[in-house]
From TrEMBL:
UniProt cross-references to InterPro entries, sorted A to Z: Aminotransferase_I/II_large, HTH_trans_reg/aminotransferase, PyrdxlP-dep_Trfase, PyrdxlP-dep_Trfase_major, Tscrpt_reg_HTH_GntR, WH-like_DNA-bd_sf, WH_DNA-bd_sf
Family listed: In the C-terminal section; belongs to the class-I pyridoxal-phosphate-dependent aminotransferase family.
SUPFAM superfamilies: PLP-dependent transferases, Winged helix' DNA-binding domain
Protein name: PLP-dependent aminotransferase family protein
HTH gntR-type domain residues: 14-82
Organism: Agromyces soli
Length: 486
């Protein structure tokens, strides 16, 4: 997936000059702009990006000072010859070296990266954030962090879950991990140790590819389960859980509050039914509660972990959506099952402690200050506003061409399309216009020929309003012109 190269966000912490410098510098270092390439005129680029010309001039001057650009009186500014180490183009782009150098660099700078999974950090309470890191730095270094996590963080997470999700657990139930993927690695290893080699875990299809990969890498086999109305189809789950012998499911992994990526949510009755089916089959339930703090319509539903009485649900949580994936921080909340707890502790010891002590202490302090609660409230308002922009722009499309769904919660929406050909065409067309979106095929176990509707996922949380509005205009125009089936 392409990196966000240029998100000129007027409300971001960094100024526009700094943002432009960073985007162009990265383009040069990544080889997208090569030595000798002419840069667009300052006037042209300013017009293209709807910013002041003086901003572009300042950015070019800074890049020239850093040695990335050559400014020449009366001639076009060009990309400078860099040291061999940095000038090397990435191998994957070697074909592009034959392309004419005249292609406009601007065309290659994305206007908006709507890849899902990127939260907004524009409203981060910087004072609390800095204070938390200062507190962590003041803590004397000790031996390595306790394997299951620093007690202050485990306690802060338990308290956060109580107040934000109504999940009552004790700090001892919480195991710190390096994000959801690493938490799932622990689950897979623990189940393999507990149930034998051929552990099979039911997964939603389409579903979270990184989650499937984490399970697979650690010895479990993901078994695709179909969806109905954007959520797990219970009848299919029931059939899968009835299998015995080698076909048996040892666990099922679900996103009940906001199915990823199709956005359905399981009503309470279905949650209870799911728990009953799992109990009957003696299977664990892995609940990926990745973004349930962000509900835009209707009240949040209780987590499976709070309905099951601490029997068989392993709750997996992450700070990637509520705060930032930059932290690589997540956690597990374990049920009372003594065998599973011992197996997770062994897996944790085998994989070593992945989250550094200062990170754990800083986040614990940030939570203790109430800063995360305030941050979630502020970003929820921000996302509600962005969601409205998406709805206003795409909510009334001709349903024959595209249908906006998955918009009731979380940080993304889905635009369902008639077929995979339309999906491929829209992704490619938008990429040409500088708008990055994710094809739904990416989430299906069978890829392009996989289960679920065709369409694209639009992450709307991490882009500024202006870039989002411009991107939505282009999406709408592409659909209205019918160009996606070109
Ligand atoms: C379904 C789902 N679960 C969890 C996560 C968070 O993953 P991590 O904590 O590894 O960043 C994401 C992020 O995109 C997700 O989409």
């Amino acid at each position: 997936m392409a990196e966000p190269l240029l998100l000129l966000d007027r409300r971001a912490g960094a100024g526009l000059v700094a943002q432009l410098v960073a985007a162009l510098r990265r383009d040069i270092l990544d080889g997208r702009l090569r030595a000798g390439d002419p840069m667009p005129s300052t006037r042209g680029l300013a017009r293209e990006l709807a910013i002041a010309r003086s901003t572009v001039v300042a950015a070019y001057e800074q890049l020239a000072g850093e040695g990335y650009l050559e400014l020449r009186q009366g001639a076009a500014t060009r990309v400078a010859e860099l040291e061999p180490r940095t000038a090397q183009a990435p191998a994957a782009e070697s074909d592009a070296s034959a392309a004419p150098a005249a292609a406009s660099p601007v065309a290659r700078i994305p206007l908006a990266d709507l890849s899902p999974g990127v939260p907004s950090t524009a409203r981060l309470d910087e004072r609390a954030w800095r204070a938390a890191w200062r507190a962590a730095a003041a803590h004397p270094p000790s031996w390595s962090p306790p394997p299951l996590g620093v007690p202050a963080l485990r306690a802060a997470i338990a308290e956060h879950l109580r107040s934000a999700r109504g999940v009552h657990c004790s700090p001892e139930d919480v195991v710190v991990a390096a994000g959801t993927s690493e938490a799932l690695a622990l689950v897979a290893r623990a189940l393999v140790a507990l149930r034998g080699e051929a552990v099979r875990i039911g997964v939603e299809d389409p579903g979270y590819p990184a989650g499937r990969r984490a399970l697979e890498r650690h010895g479990a086999t993901p078994v695709p389960l179909p969806l109905a109305d954007g959520g797990l189809e219970l009848a299919a789950l029931e059939r899968a859980l009835q299998r015995r012998g080698r076909g048996r499911l040892h666990a099922v992994m679900v996103t009940p509050s906001h199915q990823y990526p199709l956005g359905g949510r399981l009503p309470v009755a279905d949650r209870l039914a799911l728990l009953e089916l799992a109990a009957h089959a003696d299977a664990f339930v892995v609940e990926d509660d990745y973004d349930s703090e962000f509900r835009h319509t209707g009240a949040p539903l209780p987590a499976l972990a709070s309905l099951d009485g601490g029997e068989r649900v392993v709750l997996v949580g992450s700070f990637s959506k509520v705060l930032t994936p930059w932290l690589r921080l997540g956690y597990l909340v374990l049920p009372a099952h003594a065998g599973l707890r011992a197996a997770v502790a062994t897996a944790r010891a085998e994989l070593d402690t992945p989250v550094a002590g200062p990170v754990q202490l800083a986040v614990a302090d940030y939570l203790d200050r109430g800063a995360l609660r305030r941050h979630i409230a502020a970003t929820r308002r921000e996302y509600t506003h962005r969601r409205r922009l998406v709805q206003d722009a795409l909510g009334d499309l001709d349903p024959e061409r595209a249908r906006l769904t998955a918009i009731d919660g979380g940080l993304h929406a889905v635009l369902e399309l008639p077929d995979r050909a339309a999906e491929r065409a829209l992704v490619a067309r938008l990429a040409e216009e500088g708008v990055i979106v994710a094809p739904l095929a990416q989430y299906a176990v069978g890829g392009d020929r996989g289960a679920g509707p065709a369409g694209v996922v639009l992450g709307y949380a991490g882009v500024g309003d202006l870039a989002l509005a411009a991107a939505l205009e282009r999406i709408r125009a592409a659909l209205e012109r019918g160009r996606v089936s070109d």
